[in-house]
């Protein structure tokens, strides 16, 4: 992963970059945003799956398949 302000783990990336580069995808700002979006999408899917929650309609089958496939691809 390319080093930028979005992918940096902390200021130690400069001096210890070779030792922390494997952590960038998880502990960087990018990692935080990536996993936060994944959690929000899963939460929305759970809300949509409950018939009692009228404000969030159920996902179409193709949308659900697309989200599942993207989740598998990102791991």
Biggest sheet overview: none
Give the % helix.
55-70%
Question: By CATH's scheme, which homologous superfamily applies?
Answer: Fumarase/aspartase (N-terminal domain)
CATH architecture classification: Orthogonal Bundle
Strand content: under 5%
What is the CATH fold-level name?
Fumarase C, Chain B, domain 1
The CATH class designation is Mainly Alpha
The averaged pLDDT comes out at: 82
The number of strands is: 0
Sequence stretches where pLDDT stays below 50 over 5 or more residues: none
Termini Cα gap: 14 Å
Q: What value does the Rg take, in angstroms? A: 17 Å
Helix/strand order, N-terminal first: HHHH
In DSSP terms (H or I, runs of 4 or more residues), the helix count works out at: 4
The count of domains is 1
3D shape: elongated
Structural class: mainly alpha
GO molecular function: lyase activity
GO cellular component, one term: cytosol
Keywords: Lyase
Protein name: Adenylosuccinate lyase
Describe the structure in your own words.
This protein is mainly α and 75 residues long. The protein has one domain (13-74): Orthogonal Bundle (Fumarase C, Chain B, domain 1), CATH 1.10.275.10. The chain has helices at residues 13-20, 24-27, 29-49, 61-74. The protein is elongated, with a radius of gyration of 17 Å. The protein starts with 12 loop residues before the first helix and ends with a helix. The model has no long low-confidence stretch (mean pLDDT 82).
